[in-house]
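Researcher: Here's the sequence for the chain we discussed earlier.
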Amino acid sequence: MTNTRADALEILRTLVGAPDADFHEGQFEAIATLVDERRRALVVQRTGWGKSAVYFVATLLLRRQGAGPTLLVSPLLALMRDQVEAAARAGVRAVAINSANPHEWGDVLGKLERDEVDVLLVSPERLNNPRFREEQLPSLVQRTGLLVVDEAHCISDWGHDFRPDYRRLRDLIAEMPTGVPVLATTATANSRVVTDVAEQLETAGSTEVVTIRGPLARASLRLGVLRLPDAGSRLAWLLTHLDDLRGSGIIYALTVSAAEDTARLLREAGHEVQAYTGRTDATDREGLEQALKNNQVKALVATSALGMGFDKPDLGFVIHLGAPSSPVAYYQQVGRAGRAAMIDGKRASADVLLLPGDEDEAIWQYFATASMPDEARATAVIDELAFTGAPLSTPALEARVNLKRSPLELLLKVLDVDGAVQRVTGGWVATGRPWVYDAERYARISAARVAEQNSMLEYERTTACRMEFLQRALDDATAVPCGRCDTCAAAAGRPAWYPTDIRDEATGQASQSLSRVGVVIEPRAQWPTGADQLGVPVKGKIAPDDRVEPGRALARLTDLGWGGTLRSLFAPGTADAPASPALIDACIRVLAQWGWDERPAAVVAMPSRRRPLLVDSVARALSDVGRLPYLGALDLANGGPSGEPGGNSAYRLSSVWGRFDTGQELATALRGYANRPVLLVDDLADSRWTITVAGRLLRRSGASAVLPFTLALQA
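Model: Thanks. This is the structure I predict for it:
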């Protein structure tokens, strides 16, 4: 044990570049558990404690004893990049196989064969890649000297970052030779998640998992919550005080649109910021991360796409425009800040401020329901694969079941882990194993998420210490008041650490930004694959003479400005009514800014069963203001559109195909405007197949162009 500690300490000091460095409490205990006892360990320690040091040091010690390479399962590309760089500093030869470096795979596999790799990093999804699973993984499993599961809370479906592919790690562990140590690490796990993760690590005949858990208090963070009346006030606060925040940091938003809109507003006001979201290209992400690390930007305005694994020790602040759905998720995101022990000879510190919004709960609900498997759709997927009897690619399967690509891919992963389907070369197949929808399990998960949401609301309202609250949410028994947060300051009779004033100029800038109108509706150019199998006789490109022109929507439903008004307007239970004068004025501004090639000659409305008064009032108002004849609305045909919002393109198209007609009166009116553009008015553009089919009908009825206009764009 003494030799192990001395050797481990030597490696640690090389890793951190400090000749007097020593282990944090629990670090050597974890290393010894892996190296000397060859056991399975779960390490739950705060961000910045040094979990990566544990597996890098253990790797080199095991390699010196003749063990094979470490297999490190890591969830994010950013995390992999940071880990490879950190490994190199310690003399650890680390390489990664992921979707961003396919050009390097051959070289990596060659190094593995020559035993020139100490750590191989893979994503959990890579473990189920058919070629990797069948050609590389079996031999790698037999040679692996240590298995590391980073961000292990992703294993648990109770966790805030649940990844279905993590659940297959239990099978991987069971296949490993006896005596191969396993390490799981996370900074964000409450007792429920710890129990769930430990169960995944245990296999028949294995000894009990050693859990090493430390205090989760972050002495470098100064927490606060500032409730402001609306989105404009939150943006105005940022405009007023962003430059006052020390260093560079992250501004989190709940949606892609909110992140992009906020970044644009701040840039226009002269701030060096960039947006970072799930839509950001992988190459651009790497560049943006490096720009933040180099302090070349004041902040990245990000969604949760920037989170686990991003490592900038001197990150100075984290601001949230809207709250994450649980204290655990919030703790994980704010953990990006204040990770350095010292900065410029002073104790490191970072500011963390939450600016919650009234719309937060609606956004939480949307994401929660979107990620839960649906029994009917799961059964449809299994039945279709079983009926086909041959591998189906995801696009081919998408054309047979009414699911969009992203939720279909998530459902397939869940069913794969459950053993009902399997990913093979060429696509997906049904395994034939019995599958039963676990309604009780999903009800428990749903109830747990509701409880976490309520806990987040309680965090916003609490008058107790905020850091203590987060620690208790993570079942940290060492939780005590921090003395630094805004509630601790109030208890001591001190003012909150953050300013609350907002400049009038900033209020005006924010208001102007939020009042912006007009979002382009890109026209469909291609009929969806598989539409012909659903009775729609089209395929390939949409003929130019059948296409609509690029249209306009007043705003996206997720936008910070008019998005809030539109969300309320389209909320379930909201009564249909004519558009308000303010809404009409905003629509008129959209048309005034349109810049079309040829001014429309007339207005036509879509027939609406849900909001006929709203659509008719907008169409007539635009007709009056633009002095354009209002020709009326299209008729519903064959019972009108079928189905519900959502679902994939082929099904959405089939639900509206042949369901509209010009009717005799409108057809007669259209003949008077042959070869002239027509403005087509609707309430909401979601899949865009409604306006595509209606526009095709109007083009074939004589219109030279169809210009779609909707109040909202679902995006």
